[in-house]
């Protein structure tokens, strides 16, 4: 007989946690390091201690609940996500990954199974970035991308810092906020996008996180009268932008279905209907899960801009605004997830995450992958966020299978 999670217990834990910070519209407002976040953490710790787990809190308030293995000198298999929410957040984002991890531990506990490797559930501090910016700062400090001091000094709008708030709610731990050896790390999460629902599959086997690059393209033309000036004598930044946009859409098609090209904000000045604009500013957002292709798209964007602007006799500059490289998850972790799904005979989709997660940082120092389940209409960061109990159960069962494969 295969080991089965208790889907009703998991659902009821999710609903109990959702009462802490519940909003009128059925969502959750449990922002990082508030009294409500403390209450959520306390409840989670109680649940873990009931089944004999040991608690460790690091200097950034990241929580690790450990179920011992038969050889505790071996590196743990890690699960987890976050318990903080957006101000108008839902019941599942992050929480599902934490309580799904707890359900795996409870299932093993009930079956009196001790794995070879210890197993830990992590709760990462301030994943959402709603109260303290930036997002994912707990896992970011942990993996070494930010210094501890940087993390501690992040302040909310009232000036309260992470360090002060951790101290106030009793979660300023003394374990070093630094990577430790990890056998494998898994994050179970709702998709937060529409793909799984559209293809009618229950599980997303996540390969990585798409990379993105943000630019401002500024094109300088010559303002002239819309009537008397023949078309061929103009230096028109809009004409150049139109051609660049068309060619970038073609570029996204060339690398479809995973490439994205978005022009979310276009401004011209001086902004008069009968004058060719002097300046046009276009935001460009390019994304792809394969870093090599993303770099190729970046290069093509620069070539296209240069060529078009030369031909249109306008000057231009490209301002680099943000560069977030693509993340490729660990093959062994991905394979463990896929084979766990196949054991269950479920339909799955190999996919990439369009959103950032703690796993982006964890994957820098440990073998990592993620498991997605559908959420209703792809809606997240919204009180209406919803997921089906049967999908919630299926994802957790997949997590259990993957964890057991690597912890035994
Ligand atoms: Zn999340």
Q: Overview of this structure, please?
A:
By secondary structure, the chain is α/β, with parallel strands linked by helices. The protein has twelve helices and 14 strands. The strands form two sheets. Strands 1, 2, 3, 4, 5, 6, 12, 13 and 14 form a nine-stranded mixed β-sheet that branches. Helix 3 packs across helix 12 and helix 10 packs across helix 12. The longest helix is centred in the C-terminal third of the chain and has 21 residues. The two termini are 17 Å apart. The structure holds zinc ion (ZN). The site of zinc ion (ZN) has 7 residues, from loops. The site of zinc ion has 7 residues, from loops.
Secondary-structure map:
Layout lengths: L6 H12 L16 H16 L3 E4 L5 E5 L9 E5 L13 H16 L8 E5 L13 H7 L4 H6 L8 H8 L14 E7 L4 H5 L3 E7 L1 E10 L16 H18 L5 E3 L3 E4 L9 E10 L2 H21 L3 E10 L2 E2 L2 H14 L3 E6 L4 H5 L5 E6 L15 H19 L1
The structure holds zinc ion.
